[in-house]
# Entry
Amino acid sequence: MDFSFIFIGNTHSFVNDFLKQKEIIELIKPEFVLSEELENLKLDTEDKFKEILKKRDISNMTSFNDVEKLIKLCFENKINLIGIDFHNFGFDDYLQKKIKNQKELTKEEERKLNEIIKKREKYHLSKILECKEKTNKPIIIIIGCWHLREDSLLRKKLKNYKIIAPIDDKGKVMFAPQKDKKIKYGEIISNDAETEN
# Structure
């Protein structure tokens, strides 16, 4: 079955995310890999890949080490690697510091954060749809597991997708490790996948 979109849930390192990413990318051989962690970077030429590998800098919110293996894999396989988020995820300096230091947010900061998250999710969707116009192959999208929750914008608006992510006992995408439970990946297929091609 051909899917239009294959989501790989990124745990932000409670498992080795890259192992699953590499396995799926090598299996599917897509033209495009989209990544939340690449923020607003667009690596679609050899020169752009070489430049980022030399510069080794993404942003205040994303460490180069977090995405280095993915960048190298896409470069070696001549796959376009496109960021689908805002620079620093749209957070101002103050919010960046609080989030990075895992400080508790005030009610007002939480409200502001939720507004930014809504904007980010709309932007993720628009970038995904933009790339879909450019290829007939499945698009691989690497995005935080939280953005793949059941009521997320992506799951409501997109069709013919498969999600590959750490799954709990109830078959739902996990957002954090569960105590004393082995983490295992599972697949969630959109309801319409059987009828579309």
Q: What stands out?
A: The longest strand covers residues 5-10.
